[in-house]
Amino acid sequence: MNVTAHVEALTHWVAAIAQSLAANGVKDVVVCPGSRSTPLALAVARHPSLRVWMHLDERSAGFFALGMARARGMPAAVLCTSGTAVANLLPAVVEANLARVPLLILTADRPPELRDNGAPQTIDQIGIFGRNVRWFVDLPTPDMALLPFLRATLGRAVGLARSAPAGPVHLNLPFREPLVPDRARMAALFSETPSAVQVTPARRMIGGAELAMLATSLVEYRRGLIIAGPDCPPDLGPLLTTLARRLRYPILADPLSGIRYGPHVDEYTLGTYDAFLRDERFVSSYAPEVVLRFGAMPTSKPLSLYLQHHPHARQIVIDGGAGWREPTSLAREHLHVDEHWFCIALADALASSQREGPTLWLRAWVSAEQTARTIIQSHLLPQEHISEPGLFARLASWLPAGATLFVGNSMPVRDCDTFLGPRTNPLYVVGNRGANGIDGLVSTALGLAAGQARPLVMALGDLSLLHDSNGLLAARLHRLDATILLINNDGGGIFSFLPQASETDQFELLFGTPHGVDFAPLAAMHNAHYTLATDWSAVHEALQASFTGGLHLIEVRTRRDQNVIDHRTIWPLVSNALVQAGITVAE
After folding, report:
1. Whole-angstrom distance between the N-terminal and C-terminal Cα of the chain?
2. Residue 239 above 80 pLDDT?
């Protein structure tokens, strides 16, 4: 093929990709600099319906795209050059796979004749992400005759990324030199009506007979629970609350479920179970007959242990993604059905058999929730010293309505689970609980900030911030507003709660990992407003001031040894209060 024909094919090829992305609802393309990706980078940058978000680091770029996809509810694309740039996307791909976030991974590559023969910046990119993607295609080099195939592939790729269970799709794109498409020809192609292939995802349902049988059987169970784990579908809260009222079952709502916060929240919505399910007497006394589970496995370990303590309970997993979110192997029924449809249909089926008033079982759970919440607040709110549990106990009233709280892994998400109780003001709590890693948390949160118009606060540990500190570049590059609540206990705080803490001779070296980093220069390097808050009033004032805009870093310092004491002091107080309240099963 001569140069003129090559450039013509290249131009049509990348223009078709950009047009197909836009026609299928993709609006954002995160782009990393590189040479081999030049043709497609120029195409997406010049397409009138696509927005380019530049990133210098591929690992951060992948997580930034993941955060945008979460915020938009639509796939975001990330484009990088060939070589190890591709390998740096793996952590974000893994998280997107496990958390069911729609991503399009577009990786430029050398053409076949330059692979596996020592060509520079060339690695084996074929299937590099393995089973972590929904689909992989190694596309041919640009060819005018294959444009229909290309459009079909793009439509299929976006459709698969969106279809339940959503996730990442990888398209590998080899390009030959020269790499610069014809600008004028591309503009002309963009002015034409695109010829794109579109795929519309469908909702999963079950038959009326099966639903009626389920409704009839559930009416017979008086001791039931609804568990809402992380990553429930958006806007499920009101529907799930209605279903809970029909069944008269409490909802144990994980903070990352989207159910614990909002106008739909009532006394059926519990958020303090992580505290009172640590009480062995309560766990032994309150045996469920049936459990309906939505979303991923809950964050709370006491809740998981509670389910294992009662293995004979009928557990039903409702999963519209047709995936498998059941690591305990206790659930014997899995309904691959759209969660919104299921809640509406089942609530309607139960309407004629609805029982009046709360059962004694429901009253006991609500009473346990209120008792634990009272103890936690009365213990933590008067404390003068800054503590990690105390911070999350205060955030429920400090965060404005409609804010997004991105919570880091390890201790922050656990403290959020236990101490940030339900509230009726809207609050969107998000975290990367697919792989539960600390990598890419800053970038994911900033991707959320870019994809929404709400105040964003990220509560992160010091190691998480250090791990993704160069992700802060996105805030300055794209002028994003965000607040970082940095919980600095100088190391890995969660290990102080694990059996490794007994290995005192090697604990600090291998697990505590103190670093002694001063975060003020990091904030200055990224033009962030920095506050070292040494008391609760300073934390509150800095947090409220941060909502005026810009990037803010509010550091609170805690001690890992004191943190263990702060947590372990609360549990016996809750257990004693349960006894004093006389909470017993009377059915």
Report:
1. 81
2. yes
